[in-house]
């Protein structure tokens, strides 16, 4: 899809339904994720939950990807395969999920802290999440894609972290990946203009060390070049006047996490 697809208000509501199912799926993950379990167990849970809710996992068989979730521990940035990897206390586990419901896509990601994490990882998680908030503040009519990227880059780099450049956010809704690309770096006032009807996935991918990444031979897994931890948060967002309309939600996830603690 080479051109930007502008959605009607009815379509945005259908995308919201899909995005909220993604959020509910991540909340189901939040209920069970803990040290000692494997990432493939989380994937099976997500597949069943999405299917039980009348939807299809968007990632499953997408360009050959074999699972419902991308699960990326620690130095993995994104696109990690669920596996027999045993989650450990102190891990950061990024979980990215997409669904198709009523022919519309939703996409969101959350980085889970397992048990007690060290100060560097805690700062990384906090900064990456704040980067997403700052980016969403710019996702309004009249701004440009570069304003979103600049907001992420400025805050992440001011905190001493690396901003991944090889992977970007994207338009979403009719397809999983649409125009425009939404980088996490950029210049203010540059790039495509944000207009009503655009729906984008904003997804800061921030490394504790250098910005560079390694692409692995499996064709999917991406890790930080220096093997330092990486964090990833993502929302599906509709561009509106004055204030962005966030179609996914972290509140469901965080309510579960608070109850667990």
Tell me what the structure shows.
The protein is of the alpha+beta class and 261 residues long. Helix content is 31%, strand content 24%. It has five helices and 15 strands. It has helices at residues 9-32, 39-52, 119-137, 145-158, 251-260, and strands at residues 56-57, 69-73, 76-78, 92-101, 104-113, 162-163, 169-171, 178-182, 199-202, 205-207, 213-215, 222-224, 230-232, 235-238, 245-246. It has a five-stranded antiparallel beta sheet. Strands 1, 2, 4 and 5 form a four-stranded antiparallel beta sheet that branches. Strands 3-12-11 form a three-stranded antiparallel beta sheet, with no helix packed on it. Strand 14 (235-238) and strand 15 form a beta hairpin. Helix 1 (9-32) packs across helix 2 (39-52). It is globular and about 45 Å long. The protein starts with 8 loop residues before the first helix and ends with a helix. The mean pLDDT is 97.
